[in-house]
UniProtKB/TrEMBL annotation:
Keyword Transmembrane: yes
Name of the protein this chain belongs to: AI-2E family transporter
Subcellular location: Membrane
InterPro entries: AI-2E-like, Tet-R_TetA/multi-R_MdtG-like
Family: Belongs to the autoinducer-2 exporter (AI-2E) (TC 2.A.86) family.
Superkingdom of source: Bacteria
Keyword Membrane: yes
Species, as recorded: Microbacterium murale
Topology of the protein relative to the lipid bilayer: Multi-pass membrane protein
Keyword tags: Membrane, Transmembrane, Transmembrane helix
Length: 360
């Protein structure tokens, strides 16, 4: 009996079966290597699609006001291009100037911090020479040989800058293309399904794209408010780099819930270079804004998107950040929203329809 069972478990042609499995493993490894080699291209394409989904609700809003989709796409595309040009011509030069000023003023600011009473008290409380540790760290970072070793040389750094600029241009072009071709893309995906599933699939796809678009647009709007608030607070306390910190706040706070708390620490530490009182003012002011954002802005801006439990937002952001960094943390929220829509519209109705136990 056990011998016949063993015969049934073994493949009829073990050599062919083993060779097939080996070929499958080789193909899987080759595909993984190919995906890794074109990861930068995939990220560029995905970012373009990500931004296009964020712009699509604006096109839909114009359509509901009686404007034809073609004109709506044109208005949104021109507005998007104007915004990109304004950022490139105004914010980027100011950021470069403030970054250069930060590098030049850092030694003097650090000496002022070393001479302050609170720094001396912290050193005595910890029992270590903080000044020597920080100076050694700065010397290691700013050492030319170390910089060249980390960056791979001036030539590689130059190629990185050129590649970043070309990627930014490609993201803008892909965003405009995806916005204009969104209906065709959804129709093509729908046609891949069997005819009897197309109506349900089209409805589900519309819900997912609309929800993801609202999540993306809402997240960008909230991050913009965050950046403006940080700029105002840093300007009020006399910071020399308010624009730079505002841009950092924009990208950090794109990650919901976690991002604001992370920048609360970043902004407070940067304000210490002005004075301890300035750091306290920023800490209290930005903390009050976080509460205002959580209880007033977020429900109104994100209210029409899929309501995500806080635990799912934090878990998804942490998993995405561990896998793909900041991009993964951003993508995790829309993906979580899409999964919840599929569970709500497909899985749960199917389970509700099963009112009797299967026959054994």
């Amino acid at each position: 009996m056990s011998g016949s069972r063993l015969v049934r478990m073994l493949p009829a042609r073990p050599l062919v079966s083993g060779l097939t499995v080996a070929i499958g493993v080789i193909i899987a490894v080759a595909l993984a290597t190919a995906v890794a080699s074109i990861s930068s291209v995939l990220i560029t394409v995905f970012l373009g699609l990500f931004l296009a989904l964020g712009l699509d609700p604006a096109v839909g809003a114009l359509e509901r006001r009686g404007i034809r989709r073609g004109w709506g796409i044109t208005i949104v595309a021109v507005s998007f291009l104007i915004l990109v040009v304004v950022i490139a011509l105004s914010i980027v030069p100011a950021t470069i100037r403030q970054f250069a000023h930060l590098v030049e003023a850092a030694p003097e600011a650090f000496e002022a911090i070393q001479a302050s009473d609170w720094f001396i008290q912290v050193e005595s409380a910890l029992g270590i020479d903080l000044s020597a540790a920080v100076v050694e760290g700065l010397r290691s970072v700013t050492n030319l040989s170390n910089f060249l070793a980390v960056s791979g040389g001036v030539l590689r750094a130059g190629f990185g800058i050129v590649g970043g600029l070309s990627s930014a241009v490609m993201i803008v072009v892909l965003t405009l293309y995806f916005v204009s071709s969104m209906p065709m893309m959804k129709a093509a995906l729908t046609n891949l399904r069997p005819a009897y599933h197309r109506a349900q699939f089209a409805s589900l796809l519309d819900q997912i794209t609309t929800s993801v678009g609202r999540v993306v647009a809402g997240g960008i709007t909230l991050s913009t408010f965050n950046a403006v608030m940080v700029f105002v607070l840093q300007l009020a306390i006399g910071s020399a780099i308010p624009v730079l910190l505002g841009i950092v706040a924009f990208f950090v706070t794109l990650v919901p819930m976690i991002g604001s708390l992370v920048f609360l620490v970043i902004g407070s530490v940067s304000a210490l270079f002005v004075s301890p009182w300035a750091a306290g003012v920023f800490l209290i002011g930005y903390f009050v804004y976080i509460q205002f954002e959580a209880y007033f802005l977020t429900p109104r801006i994100m209210g029409r998107a899929v309501a995500l439990p806080a635990v799912l937002v934090i878990t998804g952001a942490m998993i995405g950040a561990a896998l793909m960094g900041l991009l993964g943390a951003l993508v995790a929220i829309p993906i979580t929203a899409s999964v919840l829509i599929i569970l709500r519209e497909v899985v749960i109705p199917r389970q509700d329809a099963r009112t009797t136990a299967p026959e054994e």
